[in-house]
Design a protein that fits this description.
This protein is α/β, with parallel strands linked by helices and about 375 residues long. It contains 14 helices and 13 strands. The strands form 3 sheets. The chain has a 7-stranded mixed sheet, sandwiched between helices. It has a 4-stranded antiparallel sheet with strand order 9-10-13-12, covered by helices on one side. The protein binds pyridoxal-5'-phosphate.
Length: about 375
């Protein structure tokens, strides 16, 4: 099914049928970082049971004692099938490279394809590891904030490119605002990048979760020469701990560039990650449709709950994904409202400041859970204001 059909899918009720006790038995960072009296609504992990094809692929591998090194056979073809049916984007499997995850892919690409001190453009507020990775590889951060409507500021991007930035780390869809960039915006980016010879690396990890009313346009589908995309099933099918992503080149020149990455890069990917990603892209479409329908309902619930319980909190209605960017400045809780929600309400949100200076007084709420647990999270936020 393509995006046009998504709105017609009713969310299966089992996305709402979660047991907090079972979730607390998980050993992932979301459920372990805080004490058991804290409800976690921070890091981008989903609370749902795995998609059946992913679950089966992993159980089958364990049953075979199949725990060796990853072999990417079939992964790129599975992604190409997914991209063609969802986005009418033709991906040539020969133009791809297996990487361990999105962020290590970003790091390897920056190390190999840019030089120390090169300016790398990011659009704050943005996923905090973007800042960390640019610093880690010794490049210069060039901040071009989103505009006041949380969209790309094309004039400011042009100015940054003209001033000598060498690379642009695009977040598409954007985390934390859930902004889905339009075809026109992306075509404009491609034009500017070509004119100023800027390499664009497009992180599209949230794209499978584009919600009804918006349409994801793969950056490489707008026809740039000088572009790379990073994709993974890690967010939409909740397999980030298994370690697998694909880098995809826009052109022969970029394919050559991918081949210049160190030979060991694909070996950092996890075998279970490759198996899970392949199953998700090949057979996880129906589950994804259910997820998207549920997340569509969750963003409405979030809007209603926030309006009723925290009317002074403004939020950005996400066009993709399950992260809701909350403007808490009216609450007067200081630079980091998440600290107050945690200490007084026992609910853990992501603090806004690591997303950039624009995140002062903001927090990010993860709604990738059941309606009941979302209601509990908002109620705990509300209770933090009573104390
Ligand atoms: C925009 C974005 N990129 C990358 C990642 C992390 O992906 P990975 O674990 O594959 O590095 C996330 C995780 O939330 C994200 O939101």
């Amino acid at each position: 099914m393509n995006q046009i059909g998504w709105a017609a899918v009713a969310p299966p009720t089992w996305f709402d049928d979660l047991s907090l006790d079972e979730l607390r038995a998980r050993r992932s960072v979301k459920w372990r970082r805080y004490p058991d009296d804290v409800l976690p609504a921070w890091v981008a992990e989903l609370d749902f049971p795995l998609a059946a094809p992913v679950h089966r692929a992993l159980l089958d591998a364990v049953a075979r004692d199949d725990t060796g090194y990853a072999y990417a056979d079939g992964l790129a073809a599975a992604f190409a099938g997914f991209a063609a049916s969802r986005w009418r984007w033709e991906v040539d499997p020969l133009r791809t490279l297996l990487v361990a995850d999105i962020m290590s892919g970003v790091g390897e690409l920056l190390r190999t394809l840019t030089a120390p001190g090169d300016g790398i453009v990011v659009n704050p507020p943005v996923y905090p590891p973007f800042f960390r990775m640019v610093r880690e590889v010794g490049r210069e951060l060039v901040e071009v904030p989103l505009d006041s409507g949380w969209r790309l500021d094309l004039d400011a991007l042009e100015a940054a490119f003209a001033a000598g930035a060498r690379c642009y780390l695009l977040c598409s869809p954007h985390n934390p605002t859930g902004t889905v960039h339009s075809r026109g915006e992306l075509a404009a980016v491609a034009g500017l990048a070509e004119r100023h010879d800027v390499l664009v690396i497009s992180d599209e990890v949230h794209a499978p979760m584009t919600l009804p009313g918006a349409a994801h346009v793969p950056y490489l589908a707008v026809g740039p020469e000088n572009g790379l995309a990073l994709v993974s099933a890690s967010k939409a099918w909740n397999v980030p701990g298994l370690k697998c992503a694909l880098a995809i080149a826009a052109s022969d020149r970029m394919t050559e560039a991918l081949r210049r990455l160190p030979e060991h890069v694909p070996f950092h990917a996890g075998h279970f990650g490759v198996l899970a990603n392949t199953a998700a892209f090949a057979d996880g479409g129906q589950w994804l449709d259910g997820l998207v329908a549920h997340l569509d309902a969750q963003r409405d619930r979030a809007a209603e709950l926030l309006a009723a319980e925290l009317p002074d909190v403004r939020h950005v209605r996400p066009e993709a994904g399950y992260l809701v960017w909350l403007d808490c400045r009216e609450l007067d809780l200081g630079d980091d409202p998440s600290e107050v929600f945690l200490e007084r309400g026992r609910v853990a949100l992501s603090p806004g400041l690591p997303f950039g200076a624009q995140g002062k007084g903001f927090a990010r709420l993860n709604v990738g859970t059941s309606g009941a647990l979302l209601a509990e999270a908002v109620s705990r936020m509300r209770s933090a204001l009573d104390g």
